[in-house]
Specification:
By secondary structure, this protein is of the alpha/beta class. It has a single domain, classed as Metal-dependent hydrolases (TIM Barrel), CATH 3.20.20.140. The protein has seven helices and eleven strands. The chain has a seven-stranded parallel sheet with strand order 1-2-3-4-7-8-9. α5 runs parallel beside α6.
Amino acid sequence: MLLEDLHTHSSFCRHATGNLEQYVKAAINKKLSVIGLSAHFPYEILEGIENIPYQEYSMPTDELDSYVFNAISLREKYKNHIEVKIAFELDFVEKQVEKHHEYLKRYSDQIDYIIGSIHNLNTSFGLFAFDDFRFLKDYHKFEDTDEIFMNYFKTMQAMINSEKFNFTTIGHFDLPKKFNIIPNNKELIMEQGIKALEMAKNRDIVIEINTSGLRRPVKEQYPSEEYIKKMYDLGIDVVLGSDAHHPDEIAYEFKSSIKLLKKIGYERLVHFDKMAKTFIKI
């Protein structure tokens, strides 16, 4: 079976360990057919980020050329062993989408896919980095956990609906559960999540099965099995991503994820090339 890991990070991202080549070698050792290098796009171009430690979340803009050059070099060096894809994980911050454009267009002929993600929520007290454990102390500022989930899925719906936000894939679909925080009104939150899925289907957006949740307190992949079943019913295409922050995490729990996908009915995964998708069988 040919497998691809399309969500990985490296030392370029400041909060991951290992250089790009170590991730490529790890993928080769695990007999993957494709490794996607998907560094976090720089936060520093955004406004209103003073209250989050953005320097620890991504590379600065002056390292973008180095990242892309390194990735291109590795693609050529290991072309007889593995296919190296070049990508970014791009954070959606409403009303600031166009700030990415002037940088992204410089690499448009190299980018294979873009993961659209939400790690921070706009709130009355500024950006809230809900997936950073250091911000758990701020959860009391919300009425309840449902407010966080509602904000998250409403933001995702805005991301999908944005004509100016160009992306191929939704990253870690139900991320707010990371610290095993569960909605009080599960039915209400599920309704908003399903609305996002329906919008994603209409835009032909792919959703990743992100196995990093299995390494987190929630001990469950993103999205949950309940969401994946709905995705299958809607005909939404999927990819696998380990969200590796260390080379050892490449292809983390992919076998169990494939088993889950097959049980639900999936028979294929997406393969990206220059923002266009084809398919591989599982």
